[in-house]
């Protein structure tokens, strides 16, 4: 089978899922709504709610998947995820603080919760980078430990805020942490997420050779001419900023960045020249499909999409744990 065949199949599958998803929901919308040949309400729902939501889901899934792949290669750890370095906890702290203080005013079409979540993600990124740089070099072990420490510290602050808040605000905090796309209205969120995901994808595609060598070990990669520290810094910032942008808009949606790279390795192999585009496509299509299920399985009630991905990711994690010899 040609090496490009799985990529073409993934592209066609993702295209089909993305094209179909906007018509599904509590009530299915007919194809005529695309040309305005439907009830005015259905046309508005399609173009102002469902199409933007599917676009954000596609970008978010692609961003989380490509970031997870980059971290798994950089740490040489098959269980690394986009949230390993505490970016998600930083965003959740920012959102929780905003909800606790009752800030509502936004700017430039960005809500206060989204802005604070992104600020928290950036704070987490800078803290992890600073703590890693505090020791000589740019060690992945130090980066990993710094990320875990920052994540636990921020999580404890979130629990404190939940305890100090009233019932309504505590519920809003918990609901935000579940992750979801129900807050997406119009195309503003899509344009907010797009630059971060596009930048991360371009950086990862540019560094596919370096990623292949990093998976064999940093010493071997350095011996083959890879600027190891510079490569890790580029991957760290590009992937972390993508995760921060996605989480600020959608909340923390778990397991996409863990599952997508592994499934794509089974489909196209471990060469990052083909794995990167495959992961990007699969991650986007996967989250679109999960969000479609979340919108329809309990209609008219919507499930947070983070619950769907967690229900799928838990068994997948156990399967990975039992079958991957590197974890033994």
Question: Helices, strands, pairings?
Answer:
Layout (H helix, E strand, L loop, with lengths): L3 H17 L19 H36 L11 H15 L10 H22 L6 H25 L2 H11 L10 H19 L1 H7 L3 H6 L4 H23 L5 H13 L3 H25 L8 H19 L5
Helix pairs in contact: 1-12, 2-7, 2-10, 2-11, 2-12, 3-4, 3-5, 3-6, 3-10, 4-5, 4-10, 7-10, 11-12, 12-13
User: In whole angstroms, how far apart are the ends?
Assistant: 32 Å
**How many E-type strands?**
0
Average of pLDDT: 88
Instruction: Tally the helices.
Output: 13
Task: Estimate percent helicity.
Answer: over 70%
Shape: globular
Secondary-structure-based class equals mainly alpha
SSE topology string = HHHHHHHHHHHHH
Detail the poorly predicted runs: none
Rg computed from alpha carbons, rounded to a whole number of angstroms: 20 Å
Largest sheet: none
Report the portion of residues in β strands: under 5%
Oligomer: single chain
């Amino acid at each position: 089978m040609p090496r490009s065949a799985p990529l073409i199949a993934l592209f066609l599958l993702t295209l089909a899922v993305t094209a179909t998803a906007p018509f599904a929901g509590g009530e299915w919308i007919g194809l005529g709504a695309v040309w305005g040949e439907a009830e005015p309400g259905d046309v508005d729902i399609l173009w102002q709610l469902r199409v933007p939501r599917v676009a954000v889901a596609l970008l978010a899934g692609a961003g989380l998947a490509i970031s997870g792949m980059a971290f798994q290669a950089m740490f040489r750890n098959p269980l690394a995820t986009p949230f390993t370095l505490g970016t998600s906890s930083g965003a959740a702290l920012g959102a929780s603080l905003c909800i606790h203080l009752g800030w509502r005013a936004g700017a430039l079409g960005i809500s206060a919760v989204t802005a604070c979540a992104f600020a928290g993600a950036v704070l987490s990124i800078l803290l992890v980078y600073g703590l890693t740089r505090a020791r000589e070099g740019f060690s992945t072990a130090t980066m990993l430990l710094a990320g875990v420490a920052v994540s636990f510290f921020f999580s404890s602050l979130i629990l404190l805020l939940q305890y100090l808040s009233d019932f309504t605000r505590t519920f809003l905090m918990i609901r935000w942490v579940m992750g979801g796309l129900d807050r997406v209205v119009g195309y503003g969120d899509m344009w907010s997420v797009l630059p971060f995901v596009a930048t991360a994808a371009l950086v990862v595609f540019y560094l596919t050779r370096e990623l292949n060598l990093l998976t064999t070990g940093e010493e071997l990669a350095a011996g083959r001419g890879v600027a190891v520290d510079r490569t890790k810094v580029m991957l760290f910032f590009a992937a972390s900023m993508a995760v921060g942008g996605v989480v600020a808009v959608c909340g923390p949606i778990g397991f996409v960045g863990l599952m997508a790279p592994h499934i794509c390795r089974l489909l196209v192999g471990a060469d990052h020249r083909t794995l990167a585009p495959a992961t990007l496509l699969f991650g986007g299509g996967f989250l679109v499909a999960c969000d479609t299920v979340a919108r329809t399985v309990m209609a008219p009630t919507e499930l947070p999409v983070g619950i769907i991905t967690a229900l799928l990711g838990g068994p997948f994690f156990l399967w990975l744990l039992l079958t991957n010899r590197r974890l033994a």
